[in-house]
Amino acid sequence: MRILLVLLLITIVSACSSTKKTQQARINAAYDARTEAQRNQPAGRPLAAQPDDSRRAEPARTDSRPAAPVKVAEGPATAVGTLPSSGAKPIGEWMVTSIKGKFLAIDTTSVRVFMDLTARDQSGKPALNPAEFIEHFLIAYVMYPDYNNRDRLGYGTVPLTTQNVGREGDHLTLTFDVKRPKDAANAVLLTEITETNSGTKARNDLTLRFKDTKLSDRYTLFSKTGQQPELRNYANVNDTILIRDVNGTRKPLFGFRYKHDFDAASSPMNTSPRAVSRSLMVDSTLTITTNQPFVLPREGLYYFMEDTTDASGIGLIVADKRFPKLTRPEKLIKPVLYMSTSTEITELNQSKDIKKAFDRYWLSLMSGNEEVAKKTIKAYYDRVEEANRLFTTFKEGWKTDKGMIYIVLGAPDRVQRNREREVWVYNRRANVSEVNFTFTKKPNQFVEDHYELSRFLEYQPVWYPMVEAWRTGAIRE
Length: 477
Hints:
Blueprint: H1 2-39, E1 95-105, E2 110-120, H2 130-136, E3 137-144, E4 154-157, E5 165-168, E6 171-179, E7 186-195, E8 201-209, H3 215-218, E9 220-222, E10 234-236, E11 240-244, E12 252-258, E13 282-289, E14 294-295, E15 300-305, E16 314-319, H4 329-332, H5 342-350, H6 354-365, H7 370-391, H8 401-409, E17 414-417, E18 421-426, E19 435-441, E20 451-453, H9 460-471
Parallel strand pairs: 10-16
Antiparallel strand pairs: 1-2, 2-6, 3-4, 3-7, 5-6, 7-8, 9-11, 11-14, 12-13, 12-15, 15-16, 17-18, 18-19, 19-20
Helix pairs in contact: 5-6, 7-8
């Protein structure tokens, strides 16, 4: 009997031990899952989610892992980079909705920072009056050695006047100089724009180089008046073009023209290895002089260098007079690639009358409803135009990975950036709590702001419903 009691006790202890092991295993698995999820979070905090301290703006941490494509939504956060905001913000306050920046070296001791700003007033209308912007905003900056180094190199405020805040077309411009921190070859400049009444902040990060500057750090495309950089990588055929620096230096640049017809972005779910980059053949050569206007009468991809042995230069797409709009039928049929079947694309490309084929394509999708077709076409090509304006690099913006995502899904709800990549977060879509698209920076000889998407099969539940929404005319904003 005593032996039976001992055996029973051992059995009970073993069962308890087994149960504890199972529970511990579950705890460990849950911990591992949380750790992995944290590891897969987009690198760094959203800049606008940082502590409210104008004296201290912290750089995002660098992480080589791509963000998980689909995950549960986090708490609210916003960040402003080069994209217009898609978030539904309350009307009643002034707000900066996008910032795009570039620096040009003045000399070895300082740089000049140029920013294009879009903002809106309390009624929700675009803010285009420099004096009103000056009245409603304050600007401060801080410099760090790198994105993963929190030691401040320097900081300051930017006094706003009508001399450094202006208007250029449909946006405002801001210009200010930054002194080189002692012994610093490079720095990350974090600029913070604060609305004075609400305290709402918009932040922008920009890498500065003080030593070993490249041609594009010293020269860039300016407006024909020579007052403000264009902050874009395209110009229009037969327009007056000006490549200049801040000091008015005149020097010859060697130019090369390439015929180009780059492929459009492939599906976000296409995880096949990328095709090997093809070499470009020089079509013609030319010589220009900086700080002197010139005209390029032919479309193409142009590349300007100080010396033909240099590893980098200035790339520039020269497009037709209507770009970033698309108006020619043979060009209009190309961007529908992102919402079409291979059969539909083949029929469009092989059609003898492209205009009729284009109209027939859209009407067939909209079940013959002309009104719905017109609204959907306008919405789609408004996004194509915006993608060209925002994301053109060495190829048209609609063909880039960013352009593809922007056209189909619209502007992201949040953007997170670090030195190597950019993460677009969408968390206001009905079919998923949150989805992330990670773009890795792929600099090349033409531009520095070209990015490639990390592709995942897991995008299917998000992508296909959005494509279907376009094909049924459900998206008509």
